[in-house]
Amino acid sequence: MAQINPSILSADFARLAEEAKAVEGADWLHVDVMDNHFVPNLTLGVPVVESLSRATDTPLDCHLMIEEPDRWAPQYVEAGAGSVTFHVEAAAAPVRLAREIRAKGARASMALKPATPIEPFEDLLPELDMLLIMTVEPGFGGQAFLDIMLPKIRRTRELISKHGLQLWLQVDGGVSASTIERCAEAGADVFVAGSAVYGAEDPAAAVRALREQATAATATAAWACGH
């Protein structure tokens, strides 16, 4: 089953608790953490994640677009995140960090910027619970989907299948009703959607519609036919 993770980067920051409740049918709530160093934007941090975890029953999927994730990522688990994603471009010791995140009780996820290839990290995949392929340059919401990432999603899915891993493959950036089917067909099964959900009149209905689209596309995708 496809999973939809609405991104609160597209929500009203003055009403985060209400915005979280508006998508309670979602699988996860995607929380973008930016430090104005690794990416050219500044968002929220540990205190807001703590508050959000108390305000919603939807598990939090924290995407750390920050420098020194080895130092900071464990604090997001302690703040209540159920999944923590660090960028391999910023991590000093990605295997050690993934193991620490898991040891603290969260799912460990690794993200790749658009220009970062997956192949050098094939041996790391068993250490992860999820891999995030960025389908825009990280740092800002509302960007247009990069179709040139679809072959990378396919190659990543092939590596996951090759090793027989139960590894979720997430895409983030420009995911909408017009792009989600292409992502699912290529091999993604977890979808971060920001403006496509929070820009809709009924965010919960938008989540359901996106999930149905992705699930239908997956059912006929070559990569899923053997599952």
TrEMBL record:
Cofactor descriptive note: Binds 1 divalent metal cation per subunit.
Binding site for a divalent metal cation: H30, D32, H63, D172
The protein's Enzyme Commission number: 5.1.3.1
Pfam families for this protein: Ribul_P_3_epim (PF00834)
Pathway: Carbohydrate degradation
Key words, A-Z: Carbohydrate metabolism, Isomerase, Metal-binding
Keyword Metal-binding carried by entry: yes
Molecular-function annotations in GO: D-ribulose-phosphate 3-epimerase activity
Catalytic site: D32, D172
Binding site for substrate: S7, H63, G139, F140, G141, G142, D172, G173, G174, G194, S195
Cofactors required: a divalent metal cation; Zn(2+); Mn(2+); Co(2+)
Catalytic activity: D-ribulose 5-phosphate = D-xylulose 5-phosphate
InterPro entries for this protein: Aldolase_TIM, Ribul_P_3_epim, Ribul_P_3_epim-like, RibuloseP-bd_barrel
NCBIfam families linked to this entry: PRK05581.1-4, rpe
Function: Catalyzes the reversible epimerization of D-ribulose 5-phosphate to D-xylulose 5-phosphate.
Family that this chain belongs to: Belongs to the ribulose-phosphate 3-epimerase family.
The protein, known as: Ribulose-phosphate 3-epimerase
